[in-house]
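Data card: per-record layout.
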Amino acid sequence: VLKYVTEQKFSRMTPVQAATIPLFLANKDVAVQAVTGSGKTLAFLIPIVELLLKKDLRKQQIGALVLSPTRELAQQTYAVAKALCQASDLPEPLLLVGGGSGSSGGPNHRPVTVDLQSFKTNGSD
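The structure for this 125-residue chain is written out next.
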């Protein structure tokens, strides 16, 4: 995690991160509402990665599940999670955005069955 934070040139936590990361790491329920760019994504991804690093999960065990209200936000969160996991030597997270008809051909609208098969094949924490 420190490697990622250093690579991103973050020198200090944002107020949102300082307030929430200790609570997440203590397994507390946390609800956060803050403006865009306040550091909310890392406020929950850093504790997730820290907790996953302490666990020994098998291929199809789930250590964390992040739900997003939109596919676009899910993709943005996935990009940060992917980089954070890579820097932490964790397996790549799995992005599941199924639910569309698949007719558009893009990654945003694939059938749920494709996501389920991807999880069965690749596994993910």
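Known properties of this structure: The mean pLDDT is 87. The helical segments are 2-7, 15-25, 40-53, 71-87, 112-122.

See the next section for split statistics.
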